[in-house]
């Protein structure tokens, strides 16, 4: 069985707060982090005996909380999150179809935690989720590396589409 945990990490990495899973794209207010840019971390893990056992993957997002510590995901946020998927999701089709010979859009850069945010995350996992601590650095770094590689691939696709002969 799998589980997930949502965390907010402050921009300087000094505060980590576990939050409940958002309902209908609405997060519960976190007054301690009001008016701050935060890194949202979603830890997806496998449970064993109803406790976190193995970290499977991790997801990152970055946004700003309002003066009450609220954040509500908007349609624009969802479009930004899926931009690369919609623009580059079918590379085989993109090579075959030449609609108006338009170049591909610029891809959205991946959201990557800073070193202080990573240190805070690892400290949190060591303290609160010790069963996940051994594999956490590998999973996090692998996710970051894969995100950067995919971004470079999308950039190269966009450059090639721009330079395509007419």
How is this fold's topology laid out?
Layout: E1 2-10, E2 16-19, E3 37-48, E4 51-64, H1 75-88, H2 91-96, H3 115-128, H4 136-162
Antiparallel strand pairs: 1-2, 1-3, 3-4
- Rounded Rg: 19 Å
Poorly predicted runs of 5 or more residues: 96-100
Classify the beta-strand content into a percent band. 15-25%
Broad structural category? alpha+beta
Biggest sheet statistics: 4 strands, antiparallel
Total beta strands: 4
Number of helices: 4
Distance between the termini: 52 Å
- Arrangement of strands in the largest sheet: 2-1-3-4
Spell the H/E element sequence.
Answer: EEEEHHHH
Helix content range: 25-40%
Shape: globular
**Residue-averaged pLDDT, rounded?**
86
Mind explaining what this structure looks like?
Helices cover 37% and strands 23% of the residues. The chain contains four helices and four strands. The longest helix has 27 residues, at 136-162. It starts with a strand and ends with a helix.
Brief account:
By secondary structure, the chain is an alpha+beta fold. It is 37% helix and 23% strand.
Any key phrases for this structure?
166 residues, four-stranded antiparallel beta sheet
